[in-house]
TrEMBL record:
Domain HTH lysR-type, first and last residues per copy: 1-60
Family label: Belongs to the LysR transcriptional regulatory family.
Name assigned to this protein: LysR family transcriptional regulator
Pfam short name (any one): LysR_substrate
């Protein structure tokens, strides 16, 4: 069978996006061209690679095998570029990294900045995903490094400490909730919320509310944790943010906070990778750096 690098890059992009349309866009192809390439790949291989449904596409067992080998090929290409970097200027290496919302907004910027300043020819492709999605991506070879919480199974993967992340409820200083030392998530489902426009944390909270038999009453959505804090301080409603956020926000506004008592609200985040032999030199360096100040 004859797959070229464009085919493999497209296939991985479609799996990552869960959609042929968005995968084609990420791969820089038109939808008709991408669809034809995917059909040709299935004809060439003689197997179905994607299950197509109303909510998007998922890999078949054969598709997962292809994704694994496609990622290995991409890693080998990255390793080749690393070695050629010493001989040719302007060639850049990209390290893929997936992480939950709190890690991306609160913990990764400083640590990434330090490492990237020392490696000016290496870029980081940072994507926001829930921990379970990060584990699946690592297992299927769709990323080299992930940040995951201790709420998911990581069998077969390597874990190293990153940071402890605690979620808190923020509200205006006169809100009745602040009379309590801590609250359970189910105790505040009746409240009006300020939510995130999108992201892994918001998806997690929406899912928790559904499990509890309800849904969050979202008055408004914003793109940042600071936006949630500003609106909560102004009495619009309550919000849920990482504890590290309020330390900064309290320097800018009058804000109340109370801890969530649920076990899942305190998460140990870890740097998660496959075995080191299957990682590029750049990815190993970044993973070592991220884990160097863990917990």
């Amino acid at each position: 069978m004859r797959f070229d690098l464009v085919d493999l890059r497209l296939f991985l992009a479609v799996l990552d996006a869960g959609s042929i349309t968005h995968g084609a866009e990420a791969a820089g192809l038109s939808l008709p061209a991408a669809s034809q390439r995917l059909r040709d790949m299935e004809i060439e291989s003689g197997v179905t690679l994607l299950d197509r449904g109303r909510r998007g596409v998922t890999p078949t067992h054969a598709g997962e095998a292809l994704a694994h080998h496609a990622m290995l090929i991409q890693r080998q290409m990255a390793q080749m570029r690393n070695e050629l970097d010493e001989h040719a200027q302007g060639v850049r290496t990209v390290v893929p990294l997936m992480a939950p919302t709190a890690a991306i907004t609160e913990h990764l910027p400083d640590r990434l900045a330090t490492w990237m300043a020392l490696h000016p020819h290496i870029d980081v492709e940072l994507k926001e995903r829930q921990s379970a999605e990060v584990v699946r991506a690592l297992t299927n070879g769709l990323t080299e490094i992930g940040i995951v919480s201790d709420t998911v199974s990581t069998e077969g993967l390597q874990l190293r400490p990153f940071v402890v992340d605690r979620l808190v409820v923020v509200a205006s200083p006169d809100h009745p909730l602040l009379l309590r030392e801590e609250v359970f998530f189910t105790d505040i489902l009746h409240e009006h919320f300020i939510g995130l426009a999108d992201g892994a944390l918001q998806d997690n909270l929406d899912g928790r509310a559904h499990i509890a038999g309800g849904r969050l009453k979202i008055r408004v959505r914003t793109r940042t944790f600071e936006g949630i804090c500003r609106m909560a301080a102004g009495g619009v409603g309550i919000g849920i943010v990482p504890e590290t956020t309020i330390r900064h926000c309290r320097q800018l506004m009058k804000l109340g906070a109370v801890r969530l008592a649920d076990d899942w609200a305190v998460r140990k985040l870890s740097v998660c990778t496959r075995v080191r032999d299957h990682m590029s030199a750049s990815a190993r360096s970044l993973a070592d750096h991220l884990a160097s100040a863990g917990f």
